[in-house]
Design a protein that fits this description.
Blueprint: E1 2-10, E2 16-23, E3 29-33, E4 38-45, E5 51-53, E6 74-75, E7 81-82, E8 86-89, E9 92-95, E10 104-105, E11 118-122, E12 125-132, E13 143-151, E14 156-165, E15 169-170, E16 174-175, E17 178-179, E18 193-196, E19 200-204, E20 210-216, E21 228-229, E22 248-252, E23 262-268, E24 274-280, E25 284-288, E26 312-317, E27 332-333, E28 339-349
Antiparallel strand pairs: 1-2, 2-3, 3-4, 4-5, 6-16, 7-10, 8-9, 11-12, 12-13, 13-14, 14-28, 15-27, 17-26, 18-21, 18-23, 19-20, 19-22, 22-25, 23-24, 24-28, 25-26
């Protein structure tokens, strides 16, 4: 496995945008960037040996700053939504930026996804580092974060998030890559088949905040346990799918145990034969089918524009709005603790 590094661009302030290319003995190639510690390209062969880029991205590296889609990037300090931008930590109330309807989303408009991370190559991995100061985007306490990417000759890309704080603060980090296993310019993912080891999904209210109730997915369009195409339920009224213009829901992983890596599920494209298996130590995942990607997206890698449903993000993370739900697994990190969460994206063909 080899790692190459080169300058991708320069910010108006003169800071270097760096791209890392990881290539294994099979010829699979992963590209990473220090903009949001993100994945910008994955080139992988189909069953006939044809190589395509299977993740969404942009032509201009500067387009990765401030994109609403958070394309490929590391999201934090808290991924997903916090109701009304308000939370209480150790008896003190905090107000956060409201940047998604009435809610706070993905750490705010200047969250981790829109920051330039420090980066370095260490043996066969790339390590991105970021220091989030006390009060950053309204969050309490200083937080030191690392995003570590390991890639191997078995076509497995492992993302490890580490964090330490000097007080108590919420932390919920995730990777926000959009996958299209037929190729990033192939159209929509509606004919992709998703299989999830999830018997329950969070019930959502009309503004995409969990009510606190778990819904049994049996006999619903959110039952992906045996595999289901997105097209089959994309317009359903169940659990606000139609209101959200598609899937944008949190699925609870069956048999989850804290700090144990478990299989979340898999994504499959029958036309190409490509399969993505996802493993994670997180208690669940947000499945977002790119319902709003056509809304003013930057130019894509090929110079076009995204269509809605051009890719699907399988965002392994803690429960959304967990800081306001005592019944959810806590996302609070204390000063004497190490935050460590892993997600593995494993590629194969059938």
């Amino acid at each position: 496995m080899t790692i190459e590094q080169h300058i991708w661009g320069v910010t108006p302030e003169g800071e270097a945008l760096i791209i890392y290319t990881l290539r294994n003995e099979r010829g699979t190639e992963v590209q990473l960037s220090n903009v949001g510690a993100g994945i910008v390209s994955v080139k992988f062969a189909d069953r006939n040996g044809n190589i395509d880029d299977i993740v969404l991205g942009y032509r201009d590296p500067m387009s990765y700053f401030g994109d609403g889609a958070c394309c490929g990037k590391s999201v934090g300090r808290v991924a997903n939504r916090i109701a009304n931008g308000r939370m209480e930590v150790e008896g003190r109330e905090y107000s956060l930026e409201v940047n998604n309807g009435p809610n706070h989303l993905h750490g705010g408009s200047k969250g981790f996804a829109n920051r330039l991370w420090e980066s370095q190559v260490e043996h066969n991995r790339v390590i991105f580092s970021l220091l989030s100061e006390d009060g950053d985007q309204g969050y309490p306490c200083e937080l030191a974060v690392q995003a570590i990417y390991d890639f191997d000759d078995d076509d497995s890309l492992e993302v490890t998030y580490l964090a330490r704080t000097d007080g108590t603060t919420p932390v919920n980090l995730t990777n926000h890559t959009y996958w299209n296993l037929a190729g990033c310019d192939s159209g929509t993912i509606l004919e992709h088949t998703l299989q999830l080891n999830a018997s329950n999904v969070l019930e959502m209210n009309a503004v995409q905040i969990p009510t606190g109730k778990l819904l049994d997915v049996t006999d619903t369009v959110q039952d992906f346990r045996n595999g289901r195409k997105f097209a089959e339920g994309i317009d359903s009224e169940f659990n606000h799918i139609r209101d959200f213009r598609g899937y944008d829901h949190y699925f609870v992983v069956d048999g989850w145990r804290r700090n144990i890596l478990g299989e979340v599920g898999s994504l499959y494209d029958a036309k190409s034969g490509r399969c993505l298996t996802v493993l994670s130590s997180q208690p669940g995942c947000m499945v977002y089918t790119g319902n709003w990607l056509s809304g003013g997206s930057p130019l894509t890698k090929s110079g076009g524009r995204f269509v809605d449903y051009a890719g699907v993000a399988i965002e392994c993370q803690g429960y959304p709005d967990a800081v306001n739900h005592a019944e959810f697994p806590s996302v609070l990190l204390a000063a004497d603790e190490l935050y460590c969460q892993k997600t593995v994206f494993r590629l194969s063909v059938r």
